[in-house]
Amino acid sequence: MYPLFVVLLAAVPLGTLAGAHRASVKSRHRHISRTQVSTNKTYLLEDFYQADDFFDQWSFFTGSDPTGGNVAYQDMQNAMSKGLAYVDDCDNSTVLAVDSTSTVPLSPVRITSNKNYSSGLFILDAAAMPVGCGTWPSFWTVGPNWPMAGEIDIVEGVNNQATNQMTLHSGTNVACTIDTALESFAGHVLGTNCYSTPTADAGCGISDTDTRSFGYGFNGAQGGVFALLWDQSAGMSMWNFPRADIPADITAKAPTPATWGTPAGFWSSQTCDISTNFYEHVMVIDTTVCGNWATSAYASSGCPGTCSSMVANATNFADAKWVINYIAVYQ
Q1: From the UniProt record, which GO molecular function terms apply (predicted)?
Q2: Could you say which of 46, 156, 183, 280 is catalytic?
Q3: Are 192 and 205 in contact (CB under 8 A)?
């Protein structure tokens, strides 16, 4: 993990400066199924973000990038006038892009939901995500006064990373760990202690094993669905479903997570006090360029030159865009 810059400005709503921003720890563990991931409950739709409603219910972040990216985040007016945030009238998808015609610092978009949540089933359906050397896309949730109210990274990675990285960050003195003897999930453990500080923020991460869960593999599969089930009594579960494998109940807006099979990541309430460590979270979608993690991992990602040289030519980021079909929150 690479340290966050401590720039929690009072003008930024609900701790949205908290940041995402991982290092790779390479231990792997075998997982023994002993914990119930979810009940047979069918969840009911609470909020549905799509098309023009998307921008009505999200705020544009314009502060300096707390992860050290070589970017200048755009407000709504500038983002829309530059074609960096818009709704595609052909399919009602929401597009969030990095300006591939600008000069350094590049101009991307980072948006935050106006509403906060302390539990629920969160579903992101995306047709594409930002890809390429120097990119650092993420979809995450964060509470106030980071890291005290926690952070949940649902989608995250850098450069040419092959699979998605999912991470929890806690900030209280109440335990939150992954006990690999109790968990049931398909991913590889990157770290077991979720406790994070501004100078040691690796958290407890799990790497997906499916190459369709991130980057070029995700886009090549025509995108798909990411799901977070935040259950105060059971724990946190995350899934990724490529487009061809999206469960019918998700498409029907009647999701029943108990039927989805083994999650890619699971953090049990037996070893993490969920309600104490995670509450009042807003959702965040962003793309930064270079920054602490993407720069540190650049050479090992098989990328040419340096991250600085890559960002000097904005046309390298023509494919650095989110294409989002919808985000749904169920309770």
Answers
A1: hydrolase activity, hydrolyzing O-glycosyl compounds
A2: 156
A3: no
